[in-house]
Specification:
By secondary structure, this protein is mostly helical. The protein is built from 14 helices and no strands. The protein is elongated and about 75 Å long.
């Protein structure tokens, strides 16, 4: 082949490379179009970094008590101290340090809850959607019963049975969130199961497990990723609610809901002990929800076409 003939071939290869971007670049293109999602991602990454490097970022130990500085106001308010930027609580502990360490607990709770909910919910939904019949009926009726109860009330009942504590709270919240993943997985599997590529794999001799986990499941992941993101924020809220009611993380654990519970009697005379933990929950949950909207925009084919 001459040099003249090779140049058009190289041009065609380059044109194909430019017209077919990688999956990651395509994902980022659609995700970045949602400015709120980008802002949410930045805020979430900042919270994540702060949580990971909490021992280096926090100015004080979260359990260190300063008995001479009880209910110290924030540094920007009269009577404040710049050594305690956000003030201290009722026993003299630095609120900023407790918020930073509390980010660790909140993100850890969200991660564990989502992992348990996704694994169990996807497996159950996959079985229900693939086999159908009586198995599907029994599974879905159980999920309907769970969904019939308010999520927080059911989580409270489960924690009351298992006993108060962070581990039991995470188990209870994951069980409450599980039906959403079961129903979503079942619906996606039922849609994909009748498509030609699945029938072709079945005719080619693919076994049941291969059809379920290698053929069908990868094509059901997009809505599950979005649901997992939203469940992450819901898990943080539920854990904070359980901590506030005394059924989640127990004092002196620096968990945001527990901090609110400890501070509720000082709402009128020390606004900062309630406001800052509440803002931490609000900002974190809002950032994760904004990310979820961006993931939906980037992963939903219908929204891409529009």
């Amino acid at each position: 082949m001459t040099a003249i003939e090779s140049k058009p071939a190289e041009a065609v290869v380059k044109a194909k490379a430019t017209t077919h971007p990688s999956a990651l670049s395509e994902f980022w293109f659609y995700f970045s179009r949602n400015k709120g999602a980008v802002i949410g991602l930045v805020i979430f990454l900042v919270i994540l970094v702060v949580a990971v490097f909490a021992p280096f970022v926090a100015p004080h130990s979260p359990s260190q008590q300063n008995r001479e500085l009880l209910l110290l106001p924030p540094a920007f308010q009269q009577g404040g101290n710049w050594s305690f930027v956000l003030g201290t609580d009722a026993v003299g502990r630095d609120i900023l340090s407790r918020l930073i360490y509390g980010a660790r607990f909140s993100l850890f709770i969200g991660l564990v809850v989502v992992t348990l909910s996704v694994i169990s919910g996807v497996l159950i939904g996959l079985v229900a959607g693939y086999f159908r019949g009586k198995v599907d009926t029994v599974i879905m009726r159980v999920m309907d019963i769970i969904l019939a109860f308010p999520s927080l009330l059911l989580a409270l009942v489960l924690v009351a049975v298992l006993g108060p504590g962070l581990l039991n709270a995470m188990i209870a919240i994951s069980l409450v969130n599980q039906p959403h993943f079961v129903r979503l997985t079942r619906a996606s599997v039922m849609t994909e199961r009748t498509k030609e590529y699945v029938i072709g794999s079945q005719v080619a001799g693919a076994g049941t497990l291969r059809l379920m986990f290698k053929t069908i499941l990868p094509n059901c992941l997009a809505p599950l990723i979005v649901q997992a993101t939203l469940a992450f924020s819901a898990a943080i809220l539920d854990a904070a609610a359980l901590g506030f009611l005394g059924m989640g993380a127990q004092p002196p654990t620096p968990e945001w809901g527990t901090m609110l519970a400890e501070a509720r009697e000082f709402i009128q005379r020390a606004w900062w002990v309630v406001t800052f933990p509440g803002l931490a929950i609000l900002i974190t949950v809002l950032a994760i929800n904004l990310m979820g909207d961006g993931l939906r925009d980037a992963l939903d084919p219908k929204l891409k076409r529009s």
